[in-house]
Structure to design on (778 residues):
């Protein structure tokens, strides 16, 4: 088989939600029944066409496979599972005789329906994207379903493009899957590789027939040292997979991309397989320096694709250094190309849509600007450094301006950090402060609460937006927000919840709200990034030293507490999550930046206590998310991340009950770190996984308060009373009654009020039923 030339400049993927979130609106309209499947598909077709034209206009080739096909209606891992027929039995009725699944069925697997729970969701490596976890059984029948992949290739060809279809590779698909609930103990999805590979071979055949010259198979699991499967088994699977796929004929040429870190010893294995191109993340990773001569000889026969433009962050960066990095690959192969380090799905579309960042806009590169950077480096590869000298010099000059800009370094902030002592990071021992809190709060057994946010109605969003645009008086805005807070407090009183929240109507986003009030941050106007499904966020940009000019949440919490005798939680976002869900400065260690944020939150906690708030929640849903994939770096990360949380909360009085919240956490992996946070109560995602986490809790001796979620808020399903009773029963079998809290998995912001009220009613009713059985008062 003759190998087509690989494009000298490409990207691993592109934002797929739309520059103006067109796909989000189209999908949510379909979910709501306001539009048909034909209208949704029409919107998706238009978005794919616009993306191809945009990328071609930015310099990627129309006919050399430089443009990747990475569109997804919901999630790329779900797409791969559907493409190979890995559909759990509970959804089998949605699949037709040919193995095809319509869009309604696809979304049912993603979101659940009635008694059918959706696929579990968890974080995508060390990013703020979350994927759906496939379920594999020993008897899962794999079968190809290539229609959507083929249609995209054919659709592009009709418009004059030869594009590169992208699919999660077979090894990563199985390594990221979980055994189905029916699987016997000890079963591993990776053990089904031999059964899966013929399906991938058939997918490759169909893509080749459709005109695909190259196919990109993403294998990021190979860089993740936290995968539970033994490394030797991973490498055996990798060798088997790409020996089989490489031997298939006919097929497109295979480009294996491995973003998010270093391939390490997997590079030796891949080099020995018949794949034609290998993608290397040279931002988060590197090429091993001790490559064997045999490996060097094999790599010389491959195209090496240097991922030197950071797909994870928004900084313009050192373009000259990036060119040096990709040029270094010429020591290994005469065929070298340049790309982004990861898919650009992690960054916003373009800086062209931002008008409020002033001179700091010069420091940034979003997706479109990174595509242009790839073009610059590709030209440098082709024609030499002199051909792009002006562009390299401009990027270096922007870096120099950034280093000396006002606010990047604040002497007062740095002096305060230098004055910290060990005592600033600890409170009275938990065993001593727990009785103090119990006496002050007087809560029943199995206390009920929510995580913080309540549904945000269109009226609330419009009122907030009008005030932000200067179209509404402050007095009117305050009146609207207070009316909603009163409504939420009254509703919780009526439902019978024990610890209340004010609902956060004033907050657009749990990080952006604080970023708008802390020095050292910028917020964007249109910097939308997909978090999961149709859910998008606008990550803030942390560019300078952080401080708190004034209290941020106190008046809202004070007002809410004035409306009820029950305790109302003060709600803060923790330092690690603020970092994880922002684009963070890359000119100093993350640990130093985290401590700056922690000090600002410490001041806020002190002011909340002075306002009479007795329960304060400091959310850290991203604690696991930010953990490095390299084992050698994980201990240091957990030390400083735990330290930042303890610095934020270490000044709280013994009678103040500190809560925290974690989601998508793979709780057992970081159990020691969660214990070290020393929060009085930790709520965690658990409903979608059916309380799997409590096994880790039971075996660990975790002795602080714990609230494993009983309501999956990422699905529109309303859990029944019996379902919640069952979940509480499983949790109470592992957690002492005195320590167990009852709560949803996460905040309720994205849900509607009808489903929220019904769900919370069922939670309260279920909790009362469990209390009655145990003979304890409600």
């Amino acid at each position: 088989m003759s190998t087509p030339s690989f494009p000298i400049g490409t990207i691993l993927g592109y934002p797929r939600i739309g520059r103006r979130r067109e796909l989000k609106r189209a999908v949510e309209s379909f979910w709501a029944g306001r539009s048909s499947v034909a209208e949704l598909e029409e919107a998706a077709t238009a978005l794919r066409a616009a993306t191809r034209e945009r990328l071609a206009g930015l310099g990627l080739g129309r006919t050399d496979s430089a443009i990747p096909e990475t569109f997804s209606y919901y999630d790329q891992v779900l797409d791969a599972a559907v493409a190979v027929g890995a559909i759990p039995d509970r959804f089998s009725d949605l699949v037709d005789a040919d193995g095809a699944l319509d869009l309604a069925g696809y979304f049912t697997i993603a979101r659940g329906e009635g008694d059918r729970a959706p696929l579990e969701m968890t974080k995508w490596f060390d990013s703020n994207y979350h994927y759906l976890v496939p379920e594999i059984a020993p008897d899962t029948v794999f079968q190809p379903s290539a229609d959507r992949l083929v249609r995209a290739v054919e659709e592009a060809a009709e418009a004059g493009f030869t594009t590169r279809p992208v699919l999660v590779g077979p090894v990563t698909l199985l390594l990221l899957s979980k055994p189905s609930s029916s699987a016997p103990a000890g079963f591993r999805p990776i053990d089904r590789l031999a059964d899966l590979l013929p399906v991938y071979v058939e997918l490759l055949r169909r893509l080749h027939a459709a005109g695909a010259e190259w196919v990109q198979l993403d294998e990021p699991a190979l860089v993740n040292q936290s995968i539970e499967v033994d490394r030797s088994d991973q490498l055996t699977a990798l060798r088997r997979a790409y020996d089989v796929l490489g031997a298939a004929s006919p097929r497109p040429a295979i480009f294996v991309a491995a973003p998010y870190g270093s391939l390490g010893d997997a590079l030796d294995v891949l080099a020995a397989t018949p794949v034609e191109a290998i993608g290397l993340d040279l931002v988060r990773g590197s090429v091993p320096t001790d490559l064997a001569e045999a490996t060097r000889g094999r790599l010389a026969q491959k195209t090496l694709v240097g991922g030197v433009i950071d797909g994870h962050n928004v900084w313009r960066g050192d373009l000259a250094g990036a060119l040096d990095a990709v040029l270094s690959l010429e020591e290994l192969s005469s065929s070298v190309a340049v790309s982004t380090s990861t898919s650009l799905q992690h960054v916003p579309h373009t800086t062209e849509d931002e008008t409020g960042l002033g001179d700091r806009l010069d420091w940034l590169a979003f997706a479109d600007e990174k595509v242009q950077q790839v073009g610059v480096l590709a030209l440098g590869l082709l024609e030499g450094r002199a051909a792009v000298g002006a562009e390299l010099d401009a990027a270096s000059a922007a870096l120099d301006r950034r280093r000396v800009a006002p606010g990047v370094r604040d002497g007062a902030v740095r002096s305060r950090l230098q004055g910290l002592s060990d005592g600033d990071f600890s409170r009275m021992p938990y065993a001593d402060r727990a009785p103090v809190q119990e006496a002050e709060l007087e809560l029943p057994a199995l206390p009920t609460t929510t995580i913080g946010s309540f549904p945000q109605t269109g009226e609330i969003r419009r009122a907030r937006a009008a005030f932000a645009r200067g179209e509404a008086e402050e007095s009117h805005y305050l009146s609207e927000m207070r009316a909603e807070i009163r409504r939420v407090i009254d509703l919780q009183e009526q439902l019978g919840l024990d610890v209340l929240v004010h609902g956060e109507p004033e907050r657009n986003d749990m990080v952006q709200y604080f970023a708008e009030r802390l020095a050292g941050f910028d917020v964007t106007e249109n910097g939308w990034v997909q978090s999961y499904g149709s859910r998008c966020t606008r990550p803030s940009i942390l560019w300078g030293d952080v401080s708190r000019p004034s209290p941020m949440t106190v008046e809202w919490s004070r007002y809410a507490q004035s409306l009820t005798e029950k305790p109302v939680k003060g709600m803060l976002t923790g330092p690690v999550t603020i970092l994880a869900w922002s684009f963070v400065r890359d000119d100093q260690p993350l640990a130093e930046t985290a401590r700056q944020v922690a000090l600002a939150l410490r001041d806020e906690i002190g002011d909340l206590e002075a306002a009479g708030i007795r329960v304060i929640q400091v959310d850290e849903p991203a604690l696991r998310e930010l953990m490095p994939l390299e084992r050698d770096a994980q201990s240091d990360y957990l030390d400083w991340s735990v330290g930042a949380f303890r610095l934020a909360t270490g000044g709280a009085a013994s009678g103040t009950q500190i809560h925290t919240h974690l989601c998508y956490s793979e709780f057992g992996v970081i159990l020691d770190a969660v214990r070290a946070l020393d929060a009085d109560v930790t709520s965690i995602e658990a409903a979608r996984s059916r309380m799997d986490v409590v096994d880790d809790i039971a075996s660990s001796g975790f002795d602080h308060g714990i609230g494993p979620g009983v309501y999956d808020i990422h699905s529109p399903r309303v859990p029944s009373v019996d379902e919640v009773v069952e979940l509480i029963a499983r949790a109470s079998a592992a957690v002492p009654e005195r320590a167990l809290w009852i709560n949803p998995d996460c905040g309720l912001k994205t849900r509607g009020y009808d489903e929220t009220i019904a769900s919370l009613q069922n939670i309260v009713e279920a909790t009362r039923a469990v209390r009655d059985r145990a003979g304890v008062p409600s």
